[in-house]
Amino acid sequence: MENISKVWLGELPKDSPYVKPFRMYYVQNGVEKNWDLLKVHDSVAIILFNTTRQKLVLVRQFRPAVYHGIISSALGNFEKVDLKEFPPVIGVTLELCAGIVDKQMSWEEIAREEVLEECGYNVPVERIEQVMVYRSGVGSSGAKQAMYYCEVNDEDKANSGGGVDDEMIEVVELTLAEAQRMVQQGAVNNSPPSCLMGLMWFFANKAPKA
């Protein structure tokens, strides 16, 4: 996953199927303003709990945006990146199973498909329980994300997961104690807010009581 030998930046093509930048103009209290925005896909995220193992199932993957953010914050630019000084592993995140909404299917069906593709669990859509719906990237995209919860077990395991096509995703199982440390005061994570919020919701609503 971290076997990355070269990084560089380029212009965003206008036909990108994932990100479309634009500027919105509006008048507020009689003053004309503008804001630069990104049109991106809505998405789903799934909290997975393996009841057989009593572990939370997350995914680990390299995120170019995180890698770029760390380096540009440290150096003020992203030019001639030294891969030894900034090893790609610093851009690896721990996240909930998730995916974009880009098919003519219900959001629950998309969530079920992501659970199978990324984590290898084949579950009926009836086991996908909606947790909440919210807006992500409110300063740049305002995209909608729906969070779901699903309990799985070892008998549901159909394959090793890892994603499809050229995706490189590692399935990670966390004990409840390991997951709790991620949301303790002072914790530092490469995880997105949706993952941390999902873990906190799990501990507040679904975690087995001691």
TrEMBL record:
Documented EC number(s): 3.6.1.45
GO biological process terms held by the UniProt record: nucleoside phosphate metabolic process; ribose phosphate metabolic process
TM annotation in the entry: none
Record keyword Magnesium present: yes
Catalytic activity: UDP-sugar + H2O = UMP + alpha-D-aldose 1-phosphate
Annotated ranges, domain Nudix hydrolase: 39-196
Cofactor(s) essential for the protein: Mg(2+)
GO molecular function, one term: metal ion binding
Record localization: Cytoplasm
Entries under InterPro entries matching the protein: NDP_pyrophosphatase, NUDIX_hydrolase-like_dom_sf, NUDIX_hydrolase_dom
GO cellular component: cytoplasm
Keywords: Cytoplasm, Hydrolase, Magnesium
EC supergroup of this enzyme: hydrolase
Role: Hydrolyzes UDP-glucose to glucose 1-phosphate and UMP and ADP-ribose to ribose 5-phosphate and AMP. The physiological substrate is probably UDP-glucose. Poor activity on other substrates such as ADP-glucose, CDP-glucose, GDP-glucose and GDP-mannose.
Subunit structure: Homodimer.
Name of protein: Uridine diphosphate glucose pyrophosphatase NUDT14
Lineage, top ranks: Eukaryota, Metazoa, Ecdysozoa, Arthropoda, Hexapoda
